Amino acid sequence: MRIGILIPSLDDTGMARAAAQLSIMLDQLSHEVHIITGYRHTPMQNYEGKLHMLDVKPAMVNQSFPERIMLFLKRLTALRKLRRMLKTDVMISFSEAMSIQNILTAGDEGVIISHHTLLSRNENLQDIYGKLVKFLIKLLYSRADLIVPVSEKSASDLVRNFSIDPELIRVIPNPVPVEEIERMASEDLEGYHEIFKDPVIINAGRLTHAKGQRYLLRIFRELLDDFPDLKLVILGDGELRDSLLKFSRELGLKVCHDAPDSGDFQVYFLGFQKNPYRFFSRSKLFVLTSLREALPMAIMEAMSVFLPVVASDCGGTREILAPGTDPDIETSRAEFAAYGVLLPVFRDEVEAGDKLTEPEKVWIQALRRILQDPSMIECYSRRASSRMNDFRWEKIRGLWESLLDDFQFR
Questions:
Q1: Sequence-separated (6 or more) residues with CB below 8 Å from residue 173
Q2: Confidence band (pLDDT; 50, 70, 90) for 278?
Q3: For the chain, domain boundaries
Q4: Where in the numbering of this chain does the Glycosyl transferase family domain appear (predicted)?
Q5: Which secondary structure element, helix H or strand E, spans residue 288, and what is its range?
Q6: 254: which residues sit within 8 A by CB, 6+ positions away?
Q7: Cα angle 9-236-216, degrees, rounded to a multiple of 5
Q8: Which residues does 332 contact at the CB level (< 8 Å), separation at least 6?
Q9: H helices of 186-327, where?
């Protein structure tokens, strides 16, 4: 089968990583794979198949409504022309804008939407352009042949808030290439050794509002009173990098972002790392403070190297750490679940000098308890790895194989 994968870019986001992994799985299943990105860029992910880049600049949040609409229409035209040439049998799209364009440019091909977010919580869809996108989702998504959310939570969000027919939905989680992660985790730290001589809590993700690193910095400052040798490592890049560096200094934290091989700092911003697993495997805890997640890949990758996870109950995290519980539950306290610790989602905007919010207090208390209890860390370390058997590469590839073999496209 000739299969297209449509995505804005192969950048450093979890969604791009999922698209790249899907290209590899489809190639292993002997499909002809074509990846189409929305604009020209240097790919940051390993992928399989032929790469096509539409020559259209990316739309930016700070652009005017007419500018963003014009770029949308230009991309629509370019995509329609490329699809006529490629003659794919199925086009699988990632991101809301690309999925709308997938539907609008489809001829006789099958249309699959790979869904990786909690749309109703997306703060980037609050302006006029975002409201138009949400309107088009309600109007057009039901024209797709199939919608494949990565979690039950993201699926129910589509049904409840965007009137999507449940019959169109089949949930398939992201895969975890456990063996590859384990191999990469054993690689040398190459200049970062001094940091990990002390206990480290680690966070990985884009430096954006949705990832909640501002709360993590405030919580970490409080933990230093009891654990003065503790280090915080933040992996990833994004538009809030400079803002978070400034915020860290306003909190009185000693911050490093340009001389990593030193143990004299408290917080380390280490940017995007092609191999984050070598940092995971040397850390004490993985901490995810996100405000919304459909199914965070960073958590699953951390758990693959026996790293215990503490995470906000912000969507699909519950399905990873507390399987069997209602995915629509959202805790207001510390929940020491079967495979990790779930904590409340942050709601209030905070500045460096503000008093601690109630969720922050719950986080601080729970993290103190965990860091003081080696047996709990050891227990969650063992359970973390065992949980990843449910997301192994071969199992998820089999689900995609079954979907493509059984489903009758248009």
A1: 150, 151, 295, 391, 396
A2: very high
A3: 2-175+392-406, 178-390
A4: 197-324
A5: strand 285-288
A6: 264, 265, 266, 267
A7: 130
A8: 344, 362
A9: 213-223, 241-250, 277-280, 297-304, 317-321
| Assigned CATH for 178-390 | 3.40.50.2000
Q: Is the pLDDT of residue 408 over 70?
A: no
- Contacts with 255 (C-beta within 8 Å, 6 or more apart), sequence order: 245, 248, 249, 265, 266, 267, 268, 269
CATH fold label, 2-175+392-406: Rossmann fold (3.40.50)
Q: Which helix (H) or strand (E) holds 231?
A: strand 231-235
pLDDT at 186: 95
Which are the contacts of 129, defined by CB distance < 8 A and separation ≥ 6? 65, 68, 69
Sign of CA dihedral 9, 13, 19, 24: positive
**Contact between residue 230 and residue 201 where contact means Cβ atoms under 8 Å apart:** yes
Three-state secondary-structure class, residue 403: helix
Q: Which pair of structure tokens corresponds to residue 150?
A: 């990565």
